[in-house]
User: Fold these one by one.
Assistant:
Number 1:
Amino acid sequence: MRKLVLQMQMSVDGFVGADGDRDWLVWNWGDDNRWDEALKRDFNAHFQSVDTIVLSRKMAEEGYLSHWGNAANRYPQDPFYAFARRIVDVRKVVPSDRLATSRWERTEVRSGNLPKEVGALKAQDGGDIAVFGGAGFASALIADGLVDEFQLYINPAVLGGGTRIFDQAGFGGLRLLGSRAYECGVVVSRYAPAA
């Protein structure tokens, strides 16, 4: 059984999205990357175990794939952007009942029941499955018990309000797999469901 890994940036007080237009992320996926070298190296190391990416429909339509495809082309010699090349090369799956076909390279659309579709992906042979999406998508995966590992990129910011991913009722505890603080102020904590 493959592992479904949810990566999510969040604030110290547990929000993944801010109310309003606040700049709170150490790196918001633009050209101004303030992550330190150790965090960049560890982020890329995680992608070596990934051979499938599950994206929310919204994230796919808002340009996630074209953004990282452009980054892979713009920075072909920069070792940090090795993960961008990996995003381009691996299989992508977009679970959606709203899309009939994929408009993106190496990307398939799967319609139907989210737990059934993700469960079928997890049952296949292969490496880890990375999950990227907004709070609603992440919350749905969490509520359905599909996430095997949480990689929480905690930014040095307190938002005081916004969107959370752990607001679904009935979610149990977490078991710490590891945590590391980085010079740039980000702390990456890895958890598995306790059950």
Note: The chain has one domain: 4-15+44-170.
Number 2:
Amino acid sequence: MTEPGSHEFVTRSSRLAYDGAILALRVDEVEMPGGRTARREVVEHHGAVAVVARDDDGRIAMVRQYRHPVGRRLLELPAGLLDGGPAEDPLTAAQRELAEEADLAAERWQVLVDLVVSPGFTDEALRVYLAEGLSRLPAAEREHEEADLVVEWVSLPDAVRMTLAGEIVNATAAAGVLAVAAADATGTALRSTDSAWRDEPTAFAARR
């Protein structure tokens, strides 16, 4: 038996159980401490980006969008998948999503926070940006759920209150709101947009 914290979790075998449009399910046999193996189901997913777009008055552009798995509209950040392939640049994707969902462009971009969504079963990860120096763009054409979304401008104090009150429950939105509030309060410098993203998912995109 190895000392706790030193075991190498080697994957002894792997098979693809499902390969869909936005995710794949992989079943791995992983060596555990003591020599036995355990089955681990892994949902492979595209990486994603989200944007805390803050205007000169300190308001955040949020979108209220229907989410079918939970059966209701949620207040979220503009966000989207990195579904342009392994070579897609996350910043370019974030700029596209901000334009498509909120009809906005931004002059200044920084990395706000990196997230692994639910590492117990999926490799899905998101990079959340802070975008400032906003300008309006012509209205984008939208389809499916996005044709019904509404852009709402929320002050940062109100967004924090709504998060803590359980009114903002989208995990990415909650993390982004609280991260920018914490950065403001502590004066913590944010990362540049070319900062390494250690956990950016690649497995699902590589299958396409």
Note: The longest strand covers residues 104-116.
